[in-house]
Amino acid sequence: ASPDWFLKVYQMFLSKDLEVSWVELICSWAHFEKDSDYKEQEKLEAAGRPPCVKAWISHTCSTIYRPDLGALPAFEKGFRVWWANLQPEWQCEGSTKILKQQQGDLDNLHRLGKNGLVSVLAALFFW
After folding, report:
1. Tens digits of residue pLDDT in 58-110
2. Fewest C-beta atoms under 10 Å: which of 19, 25, 83, 87?
3. CA distance 2 to 4
């Protein structure tokens, strides 16, 4: 059975009427978690994480709490830098440009559980 934290966050992510690509992303993440039996792994790197994600985590990943994003241009820039920092070196060019080619593994992004990729999805959801 799916853990309680997963079910709550999954429902939150699908609570808004968003584009099909968002629903597909959430379904892919759900399969990723399920296929790994929802096992907690290493935490996702926190360096550069947007303050709104930190605030959400400090509210125990509440499905009711909505953090303040601040100024959207600053949030977007911060999110892009954080996302680029999470990528393996071969995947990036500069501090924010992510290459589309795949030359190697993505092990450093294989972060499951409530301390994993759910934080990235939450940032996108709040955005």
Report:
1. 999 899 999 999 999 999 999 988 988 888 877 776 666 666 766 777 777 88
2. 19
3. 7
Structure tokens at 54: 């930190």
Q: What letter would DSSP give residue 109? A: G
Q: How far is CA 13 from the centre of its chain?
A: 11
Q: Look up residue 101 and give its two tokens.
A: 């080619």
Q: Does any domain span residue 111?
A: yes
What is the number of domains present in the chain?
1
Pick the closest to residue 122 from 40, 51, 42 (CA basis). 51
Phi and psi angles of residue 97, each rounded to the nearest 5 degrees, phi first: -85, 120
Give the domain extent around 52.
Answer: 4-72+107-126
User: Of 32, 31, 67, which is closest to residue 49 (Cα–Cα)?
Assistant: 67
pTM over 0.90: no
Residue 112 lies in a domain: yes
Determine the 3-state secondary structure of 10 from DSSP: helix
Structure tokens at 57: 């985590």
CA distances from 97 to 80, 88, 89, 93 (A): 8, 12, 11, 5
